[in-house]
Structure formats: structure tokens, C-alpha cells
Amino acid sequence: MTIKGVLFDLDDTLYDSTTFVDRARKEAIKMMIDAGLNATEEEAYNILQRIIKQKGSNYGHHFDDLVKAIEGQYNPKIVTMGIITYHNVKFALLRPYPDTIKTLIELKKMRLKLGVVTDGITVKQWEKLIRLGIADFFDEVVTSEEYGLGKPNIEFYRYALKKMNLKGEEVVYVGDRMDNDIIPASKVGMHTIRILRGKYKDMKGKCKYEVKSLREVVDIVKKLIEEGV
């Protein structure tokens, strides 16, 4: 058995999700306050963070709930200002990590199948990949919305393998979280590589292969192929 494919997590693995999303939210709050939101930036940010924690990052009405929590009622002008600013800043800052494209090119040269396994709404995840300029590298993009269950459910990972038409031992999985990425991918037989960056880089747990750069992934994959694992 040899390595035939590599699956990647998306957020904080192929691009800096944490930094650009947080900055976009803060800029949105500034503009919402300019539009009449009655709160300080710190107050509004803390309330927004609580809403995101309660409803999840894929919830579609964070700014609606923020305005209602502060103003006691819906204000379409303030909400719209937040949405427009958030998306303008987000897309202005959306870039792959410097090592992402070079790594994907090298893996493609090795004639490996490449895929993405990600929680989120399918259209939004595809939008990220297209705006990042990396969509065409991937043979499959598997989302939690498509399957109906997300990480860390191991059936979600089995579904990804099925779409790739590969067995677990034929695939290397690259992600940033022990709980949502490394542990469930290992359980379905994949070789796992944990990338130590983003907000989960200090999460407890140990993976056999841990890297700080995606460029190191290429060397590990080559090593596994040479060993014929």
C-alpha cells in the first residue's frame, strides 16, 4: 500500500482564518458604531463573540443579533453596514499562506489526489477556495453541509475517503486541530500531520508528524511513499 492522496483542513491550515476574520469583525463593528450602534468597540466585540460562541461561526445572523442585543430592536441600516464592511475587509485580506500554493504544486507533481475536508456551508467554502486562487488544485471538496454531519464525526471522514475513492492508509490528512482533525482522521486509518499555527496551535495532544510549515508536508509524504507504508 502506498500514499495516493492528501486531504487538507481549510481554515488555519491553508490560509490564516483566525487573523483575517477577527480583523473583519472589528472593522465591521467600527462602521456599525459610526452608523449609530450605541456601544463602545470593546462592548460590541465582546457581545459579538458571545453570539458566535452560542450560535456557531456558520450562523448567518450574527450582526442582526448583535444589534438586537444592544439596541433592543432590529435596525437594518446598522446591520447592513456591518455585513458590507465585514465582507469587504474579509475579501480584501483573504490570501493563502505563503507556502500553500507551492506545496499544492509539489504534491500535484507527485500525481496525488488532493482534497479538502471542511465544516461549513458548501457555497461559502467553495467561495473561499476560489478567492484564495487554489480551487483548481483539488479533486474533491467535502463539506459538513453536503454530508449532513461535520467534524469530528468519523463517518464524515469515511465519506471523504469514499469521495476520493481511496482507503484510509492511502491518504495523508493535514489539519490544525487535534480534536476535530487529527484524532478522527487517525481513527479511519489515515496518516496524519498536524500543522502548528492558528488559534489551536497550543491545543493539547501529540501527533506523530507535527510541522510549522506546509512545505514540510511534501517531505513527509515523500518519506511515506519511499517507505511504502
Automatic annotation (TrEMBL):
GO BP field? small molecule metabolic process
Recorded GO MF terms = metal ion binding; phosphatase activity
The record's section on Pfam families has: HAD_2
- Which metal ions or organic cofactors does this protein require, according to UniProt? Mg(2+)
Key words, A-Z:
Hydrolase, Magnesium, Metal-binding
Q: Which InterPro entries match?
A: HAD-like_hydrolase, HAD-like_sf, HAD-SF_hydro_IA, HAD-SF_hydro_IA_CTE7, HAD_2, HAD_sf
Key word rRNA processing present:
no
Q: Where are the transmembrane segments?
A: none
Family statement drawn from the similarity comment of this UniProt entry:
Belongs to the HAD-like hydrolase superfamily.
Tell me the function of this protein: Catalyzes the dephosphorylation of D,L-glyceraldehyde 3-phosphate in vitro.
What is this protein's name? Glyceraldehyde 3-phosphate phosphatase
Q: What is the species listed in this Swiss-Prot or TrEMBL entry?
A: Methanofervidicoccus abyssi
